[in-house]
Write a structure and sequence with these properties.
150 residues; eight-stranded antiparallel β-sheet; 22% helix; alpha+beta; globular
């Protein structure tokens, strides 16, 4: 048991799974050559993995370059209703680029719980999507709940 597991409000694996199935967005932290890069993402989830479709614009993509250079990524998913009513889950593991043959699976998982932005207003740039999986090796979560009314 690490320090996180001993804290009041630590979430069980089942509570983390339930929370991630209810959420669809988070912040994915990547790293390259000592430089951090965090991006908002929409994700699909099933136990053990989170699935992303990275939107890329044009020939080069900073997001793809960082994803390819990252040995171990970190996805933070949170929900805040108030100072004493919040949930935060942090997932860590390697990113794996998925081939086109995986798109049916990615699409199904993302449709289950992810949020997708409307990209109609971004202009006429060339848009493509690359699929990635975060192979979750470590998941931790904390939850604060408001006190019961007296």
């Amino acid at each position: 048991m690490d320090d996180h597991d001993a804290r009041e409000g630590a979430m069980s694996d089942a509570a983390i799974d339930e929370f991630l199935l209810e959420q669809g967005t988070g912040v994915l932290a990547l790293a390259r050559d000592g430089e951090a890069y965090a991006v908002p993402v929409s994700f699909g989830y099933e136990a053990g993995r989170a699935l992303f479709g990275f939107f890329t614009f044009g020939e080069s993509s900073r997001k793809l370059a960082f994803a390819e250079a990252t040995d171990r990524a970190c996805l933070t998913v949170y929900d805040v209703a108030g100072p004493d009513d919040w949930t935060s889950v942090v997932l860590r593991g390697p990113l794996v680029e998925l081939g086109v043959d995986s798109w049916a699976d990615i699409g199904a998982r993302i449709s289950d719980n992810a949020w997708s932005p409307d990209l109609a207003g971004i202009g006429t740039r060339r848009l493509s999507v690359v699929g990635f999986e975060l192979d979750i090796e470590e998941a931790t979560g904390l939850r604060a709940t408001p006190p019961e009314p007296r």
